[in-house]
Amino acid sequence: MKAFAYLAGATALAAALSSPAFAQSEIATGANATGISQVNEGMKDVEEAVRDDFDRSADSYRFGTPDSAEGVFGSVALSYVGRTGNSENQDFSLSGRISSNQGAFSQSVGILLEYGEDNNGEKDTDKTSTIYEGMYSINDRFYGFALGRLTTDALADDPVSLDEGDTFDDLDGRMKRDAYFGFGPGYRIINNGTTAWRMQAAVGIRYTKAVNVIDPVAETLETVSDTGVGYLVSSRFYHRFNETMFLTNDTDYLTSDANDTATNELGLNFKMADSFATRISYKTEYVSDRAIRTDNTLGVSLVYGF
């Protein structure tokens, strides 16, 4: 129960930081014709991006298994946009998730479908992704977990899917298939009211099918498959300085014959007032087989509600 009390406190703080009210307004008469709707949609995109940034700092398993409802539950979302006139194209996406919580064991399965056509009626997006997550809590410290992901991109080797300004050479290294399934143990090294640090390691199977551009001038390519053992190490660190400020550092490292991938995100979240929250983050992503192996991203998100 102590772990759940810690979890409730952390969740409350995360909610306080992430939920200062965004202004909500109905679309005014004439908004579509005057362009107000378009601007409003852009504002919503910014608001959602900020919410997502705050949500990344929340770790529902930080102090223990979430005290969530028992049973099976889920959701499905669908989006379709078809355009005619100056542009003739369409986009379709479908996402769904089903979760199950039974005592110390929780698991979820999710799927994402993305399909699109360009102005010539040709497919420019055709992606499918599925994920699986499972966790079994042995006690307050030890837990076992399993996770899996399968992503397919039917157009990874097709120039029609390139962004504007890209060249044929930009197809090199794109993944037609990328899958991983692994399982292993986790351990909460520190688990008190102000600091939580857990680490987990997994061994599994990594499968990739990547595009290899042979000659960008002649526009020739091949796809290369690789199957091997993949090792995953993850760390989740959280420290609360006071009631209004906490720091997180999330690290993941996956190594296999295909490549090595590592990410680290350091974030500082603080609440200046009940309606004012800020998050500053610095994310580093490393992929061993890219021309430029490391990408760094500095993020600043601020929410003020009144």
Tell me the number of helical segments per DSSP (H or I, 4 or more residues long).
3
Order of helices and strands: HHHEEEEEEEEEEEE
Spatial strand order of the main sheet:
1-2-3-4-5-6-7-8-9-10-11-12
Please estimate the helix content.
10-25%
- Gap from first CA to last CA: 36 Å
The CATH architecture classification is Beta Barrel
Helical/strand content category: mainly beta
Signal peptide: 1-23
Keywords: Signal
InterPro entries: DUF481 (IPR007433)
Protein name: DUF481 domain-containing protein
Give a quick set of tags describing it.
Porin, 306 residues, 12-stranded antiparallel sheet, 3 helices, DUF481, DUF481 domain-containing protein, disordered N terminus, 58% strand, signal, single chain, 13% helix, 12 strands, mainly beta, globular
Question: Can you offer a commentary on this structure?
Answer:
This is DUF481 domain-containing protein. Keywords: Signal. By secondary structure, this protein is mainly beta. It has helices at 2-18, 31-34, 36-55; strands at 71-83, 89-102, 105-117, 123-137, 142-153, 175-191, 195-215, 220-242, 245-255, 260-273, 276-287, 294-304. A 12-stranded antiparallel β-sheet has the order 1-2-3-4-5-6-7-8-9-10-11-12, with helices on one face. Strand 1 and strand 2 (89-102) form a beta hairpin. It is globular, with a radius of gyration of 22 Å.
